Every structure is written in structure tokens, then in C-alpha cells.
């Protein structure tokens, strides 16, 4: 599933290609793609046609486009997008062949490239949220991410200390910190030399500070590489894959030598997925009882 860097790459593409343009037409070819818009396809299209895209914003792994209604000066409603596991927002020439899993397409009054929502597995989706321009209410429960200038490191550390859980579980808890998924959690933990099972109640402020710095570093490195792509499903708005998978230090490297100490990387089962770590650099903590 796309994590913060991949979604941010898409957001930047939308900012370049879509912001400032007025929606002229909306075509929904697969209503599952707008299942979160409970009023249906006709209402979805009516809410969008004639609106101008004001900005492209992100909270964690969620995107939204604030919309300015005809005759208005400021945005009010918003078009929400969640990419799920395979969703793609592509900017394509109107005459380009239809993608096999094209579900929604948007044309603009300037007659230029159109925006398409393509989703092979249909876990992602779009919706219009009334009054959601500043922060859609459906995203209010999602915490800020480490790249957000308003993210508070000290408050995050205090929240970690209050939780009776493991540090990797905490990193994946979107109510604590957003945007970090399985890949970048493993990478941040490797860079900070922390085992994912370390109890959060035992973390010092210095360890939390290093962990956040590592998370920021790895996500900024991924952004510079265009994100991480393990298959053809994650692409930017121009259909290009990211290359950060070539720079991973832990994730997906079972049996390969640690880039720091040469000990073979280990893989263990974790929450119905895999965790990767160096058993030498990231020592398993003493046995402790922690919650979920």
C-alpha cells in the first residue's frame, strides 16, 4: 500500500497539473470507486462540474482537493482520494487509450490533459465531502505526519510513553502519527537501531527524537527517488515508478547482509505482514508484556 512518500509524490503531481483548473465533466465507469460518496454517481458529478481546484493537500496517506464553487472566492467542499493498495491518479491526454481499470475520469474547461482514477483492486476510492476544504471531517482522526511543520515531537514522545504497546505498532497507528506504513517503519527502526518490539513506555526522549529523525530522513530520501515501487501498481501522475526500493536497508532484504554490520537481515511475521530487522544492530528487547 502506498505510504507517505508515494502519496506526497502524487500530491505534488496534482499540484502541478490540476490545481487552478475548472472541472468540465466527470465520468464514473465503476461505481465501487465512489462507494464512499453515498449519494451516488450523479450527485458526485453534479457536485464537481463547474468547480475550480484550489489546492492539493494531504494528511498521512489521504489526499484531498479543495474546490471553489462557481461564483465563490474561497474553497468550501473537497474531493477526497484514497489510493488503497493499487489506486492511481493519472494525468493523461484526452485521446489516450482507456486503461483497463479506469473507474473515474475528469475533463477540464481548458481542454488539456484529463485526470483519471485507475484502480486494479478497487480498494481505493473518491468522494466529495461538503465543507471539507480545510480538513475533511472524515480525516480529523488522522494524526499529523513527521514531515508536517506542525508535528510536535515532544507531544508524540509523551503519547508514546502513555501507550502500553510496541514501537512498531505505535508507528503504524494513524491516530498517533500518520503516513508511516510497514516499509518505512522498518527502515526508520533500522536507522535508529531500535527493535520493533521495544515497549514504547521504555523509550527515552533521545530515542524518540532519533526515531523521528530517521523516519524523516528515510521518507525524504524516498521522496527524492520518487517513492518506492515493488510492482507496476504504484506510479506518479505521469505513470512513472519510483526507485527507492533500490535504497532500502531492511525491508525485503531477508538473508542479505546488513549494510551496517554485515549480519544477515531477518524476517519475522508481524500483524499479518512481515518485519525486517538486523538481529545485531537492533537487539531484541528483554521480554515484556505489551498490549496491542
UniProtKB/TrEMBL annotation:
Catalytic activity: Hydrolysis of DNA containing ring-opened 7-methylguanine residues, releasing 2,6-diamino-4-hydroxy-5-(N-methyl)formamidopyrimidine; 2'-deoxyribonucleotide-(2'-deoxyribose 5'-phosphate)-2'-deoxyribonucleotide-DNA = a 3'-end 2'-deoxyribonucleotide-(2,3-dehydro-2,3-deoxyribose 5'-phosphate)-DNA + a 5'-end 5'-phospho-2'-deoxyribonucleoside-DNA + H(+)
Domain FPG-type as annotated: residue spans: 249-283
Record keywords: DNA damage, DNA repair, DNA-binding, Glycosidase, Hydrolase, Lyase, Metal-binding, Multifunctional enzyme, Zinc, Zinc-finger
Domain Formamidopyrimidine-DNA glycosylase catalytic: 2-124
Residues annotated to bind DNA: 101, 121, 163
Example of a GO biological process term: response to oxidative stress
Cofactor note: Binds 1 zinc ion per subunit.
Cofactors (names): Zn(2+)
Short name of any one Pfam family annotated for the protein: Fapy_DNA_glyco
Active-site residues from the entry: 2-3, 61, 273
UniProt-recorded Gene Ontology molecular function terms: 8-oxo-7,8-dihydroguanine DNA N-glycosylase activity; class I DNA-(apurinic or apyrimidinic site) endonuclease activity; damaged DNA binding; double-stranded DNA binding; zinc ion binding
Residue ranges crossing the lipid bilayer per the database entry: none
CDD domains from the UniProt entry: EcFpg-like_N (cd08966)
EC number: 3.2.2.23, 4.2.99.18
Role of this protein: Involved in base excision repair of DNA damaged by oxidation or by mutagenic agents. Acts as DNA glycosylase that recognizes and removes damaged bases. Has a preference for oxidized purines, such as 7,8-dihydro-8-oxoguanine (8-oxoG). Has AP (apurinic/apyrimidinic) lyase activity and introduces nicks in the DNA strand. Cleaves the DNA backbone by beta-delta elimination to generate a single-strand break at the site of the removed base with both 3'- and 5'-phosphates.
Subunit architecture: Monomer.
Family to which the UniProt record says this protein belongs: Belongs to the FPG family.
Protein name: Formamidopyrimidine-DNA glycosylase
Species of provenance: Embleya hyalina
Amino acid at each position: 500500500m502506498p505510504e507517505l512518500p508515494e502519496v506526497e509524490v502524487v500530491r505534488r503531481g496534482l499540484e502541478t497539473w490540476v490545481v487552478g483548473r475548472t472541472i468540465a465533466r466527470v465520468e464514473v465507469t465503476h461505481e465501487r470507486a465512489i462507494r464512499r460518496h453515498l449519494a451516488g454517481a450523479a450527485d458526485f458529478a453534479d457536485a464537481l462540474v463547474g468547480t475550480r481546484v484550489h489546492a492539493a493537500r494531504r494528511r498521512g496517506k489521504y489526499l484531498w482537493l479543495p474546490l471553489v464553487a462557481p461564483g465563490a472566492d474561497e474553497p468550501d467542499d473537497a474531493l477526497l482520494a484514497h489510493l488503497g493498495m493499487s489506486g492511481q491518479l493519472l494525468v493523461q491526454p484526452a485521446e489516450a487509450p482507456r486503461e483497463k481499470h479506469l473507474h473515474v475520469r475528469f475533463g477540464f474547461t481548458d481542454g488539456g490533459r484529463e485526470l483519471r482514477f485507475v484502480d486494479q483492486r478497487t480498494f481505493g476510492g473518491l468522494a466529495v465531502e461538503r465543507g471539507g476544504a480545510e480538513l475533511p471531517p472524515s480525516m480529523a482522526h488522522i494524526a499529523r505526519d513527521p514531515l508536517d511543520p506542525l508535528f510536535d515531537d515532544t507531544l508524540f514522545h509523551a503519547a508514546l510513553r502513555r501507550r502500553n504497546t510496541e514501537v512498531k505498532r505505535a508507528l503504524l497507528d494513524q491516530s498517533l502519527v500518520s503516513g508511516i506504513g510497514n516499509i518505512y517503519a522498518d527502515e526508520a527502526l533500522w536507522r535508529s537501531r531500535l527493535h520493533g518490539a521495544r515497549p514504547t513506555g521504555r523509550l527515552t526522549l533521545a530515542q524518540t527524537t532519533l526515531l523521528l529523525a530517521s523516519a524523516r530522513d528515510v521518507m525524504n530520501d524516498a521522496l527524492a527517488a520518487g517513492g518506492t515501487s515493488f510492482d507496476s501498481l504504484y506510479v506518479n501522475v505521469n505513470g512513472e515508478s519510483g526507485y527507492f526500493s533500490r535504497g532500502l536497508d531492511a525491508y525485503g532484504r531477508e538473508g542479505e547482509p546488513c549494510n551496517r554490520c554485515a549480519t544477515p537481515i531477518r524476517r519475522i511475521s508481524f500483524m499479518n505482514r512481515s518485519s525486517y530487522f538486523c538481529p545485531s544492530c537492533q537487539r531484541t528487547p528483554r521480554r515484556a508484556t505489551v498490549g496491542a
